[in-house]
């Protein structure tokens, strides 16, 4: 039986890096569950790589087909952008396991949609000071570093991923990303066991 692995964690905890590594490990046989968004494509992005890009009409069609698993709307300075997960016609949960990066909100909605027993949480944690340094270092490499947004996210994450919210979501196990290789090894072992059940 297939499972859905949901990688979660605060900003700069290493989700993206870990996701890429898990996907490259063919022995795990995980499939990507690529999210959808109504936000415009950024330079360097490609349809179907980070996201499937659509618009409000595309979203409405998917909703009519009852294929939207969970959806989040963000009121940005450019207007409302929606991010959502879609049931893909080629998905085969009997045989395949899927992996995605999710928020706690998405996790809760997906537990409702698929059933908790189908869902495997992988919560990644990094000590706050180290995480902030990694976030600043990553931002510094950008042409136009967005330190303000970085600070906003850092504070928002503390609320979104509060101990209470984690507890209510049934997330108890944590994977500490101090050393990437050790963390990856631990996560891979955990996933291998979890998808066997
Ligand atoms: N164990 C580690 N040691 C050192 N640097 C790391 C480690 N893990 C991740 N990083 C670095 O920290 C930064 C944040 O990692 P990454 O982009 O994977 O995080 P993320 O959780 O996807 O962040 P966001 O949610 O903000 O997009 C990257 O520059 C990455 O190279």
Automatic annotation (TrEMBL):
The keyword Kinase applies. It holds the Pfam family Guanylate_kin. One of its GO terms (molecular function) is kinase activity. Keywords: Kinase, Transferase. InterPro entries: GK/Ca_channel_bsu (IPR008145), Guanylate_kin-like_dom (IPR008144), Guanylate_kinase_CS (IPR020590), P-loop_NTPase (IPR027417). It comes from the Bacteria. SUPFAM superfamilies: P-loop containing nucleoside triphosphate hydrolases. Residues 2-192 form the Guanylate kinase-like domain. This is Guanylate kinase. It comes from Hominiventricola aquisgranensis.
